[in-house]
Design brief:
Shape: globular
CATH class of the largest domain: Alpha Beta
Number of domains: 2
CATH superfamily of the largest domain: HUPs
Strand content: 15-25%
Number of helices: 8
Mean pLDDT: 91
Distance between the termini: 36 Å
CATH topology of the largest domain: Rossmann fold
Oligomer: single chain
Number of strands: 10
Structural class: alpha/beta
Helix content: 25-40%
Low-confidence stretches: none
Order of helices and strands: HEHEHEHHEEEHEEEEHH
Length: 296
């Protein structure tokens, strides 16, 4: 039987998911509510249908998630019969850290350390994520099955070869695995899959009028005015925008767009000349350094 390009990508991801779950004692799927983790969760639901997915969705709540994303997260998990587990670094919450003011320290405490806390608390050993190699140069260094040490650290010099789709699931004492079944997908593949499979998605990806502040060329949607760090003379104005990537709302830039459907977004994406992660203001600095510390 001849498979389409998209069918082959889906079949590869299903194979990796089934293989990894079979090798795991406590598997988990990290779910940010973004398009990539949503597509991965959708593929996972198909991989184990008609049974309920045998691994939970784990969401690390940074406390600065978009309100629409949190609502979508809960609806999606219920619709596909996933067990949803949410973790917040409560110590970081008490410190009242802010992603704009505290930058890399905020990311380390509220995302990296929070993730490590969640993985340790539940002793997850094989953890699936939706990262793709085409997103960012550091992602391209990662194998599909990536070994982490007992502190969840990543060493790119200790990557295992993966020949002819043979994945090495061996874990040493204290080691865990981060697994990326969508590694070989592109942003265009993701959107084509969303369109053809009618995958539900957080509404933030689709263009709509939203309250926006323009800062040095970046369009910041004011998701919670009470928690916004306002600059002198700033006011929010309604603009037609959408997101190509989602993160903490004060440091994730939107783009002006009229694309309100998956089909329109595919056309817009194919004409784009910048990476989707250009909108992650919080990516400034070394993503590799963060990953070495345990960032997903």
């Amino acid at each position: 039987m001849s498979l389409s390009h998209l069918d082959r990508l889906e079949a590869e991801a299903i194979h990796i998911l089934r293989d990894g779950v079979a090798e795991a004692e406590r598997p988990a799927l990290l779910f940010s509510g973004g398009k990539d983790s949503t597509v991965l969760a959708h593929v996972a639901a198909r991989a184990f249908y008609p049974a309920a997915p045998p691994l939970p969705l784990v969401h690390v709540d940074s406390t600065f998630e978009f309100a629409d994303l949190l609502a979508f997260r809960d609806t999606f998990a219920a619709a596909f019969d996933f067990r949803l587990m949410v973790h917040v670094n409560e110590e970081g919450r008490r410190l009242a850290l802010h992603p704009e003011r505290d930058g890399a320290h905020y990311t380390r405490v509220m995302r990296t350390e929070a993730l490590k806390q969640a993985l340790d608390a539940h002793r997850f050993d094989v953890v699936f994520g939706g990262a793709r190699r085409d997103e960012e140069k550091t992602r391209a260094k990662e194998r599909i099955v990536s070994v982490r040490n007992a502190q969840h650290g990543w060493d790119p010099r200790k990557q295992r070869p993966e020949l002819w789709s043979n994945y090495n699931w061996r874990r040493g004492a204290g080691e865990t695995l981060r697994v990326f079944p969508l590694s070989n997908w592109t942003e265009d593949d993701i959107w084509t899959y969303i369109c053809t499979r009618r995958v539900p998605l957080a509404p933030l990806y689709f263009a709509a009028p939203r309250p926006v502040v323009a800062r040095q060329g970046a369009l910041i949607v004011v998701d919670d005015p009470a928690r916004m760090i306002w600059r002198t003379g700033e006011t929010a104005a309604q603009r037609q925008v959408r997101f190509r990537t989602l993160g903490c709302w004060p440091v994730t830039a939107a783009i002006e767009s009229a694309a309100a459907s998956a089909e329109a977004i595919i056309a817009e994406t194919r004409a784009a000349r910048l990476s989707e992660r250009q909108g992650r203001i919080s990516d400034q600095g070394s993503l590799e350094a963060l990953k070495r510390e345990g960032y997903f």
